[in-house]
Design goal:
It contains 2 helices and no strands. With 80 residues, it is mostly helical. The protein has one domain. Helix 1 packs across helix 2.
Length: 80
Amino acid sequence: MEGATLLGLNSLINICVSLLCIVVSWWVLMGVRIEAVIRPKRTAQAKALMIILSIVLGHNLATFLIDYLSWSRMISQLFT
């Protein structure tokens, strides 16, 4: 593959992994009752907090997975 095509494919994979990790984080946080910690009648703020936490946790998870994938590709180059 050419360099530009490989870069574009790598970027697309990174975007998909990031979005998938954010969705997984949202799904996990749906099991946590954040509303119990926040004052009554502040459900909009609780949902906003859930969205922010999902993005932060999902981004961190995606960064780890993308780095791990990159490092595992580098190890294969060690033996060639």
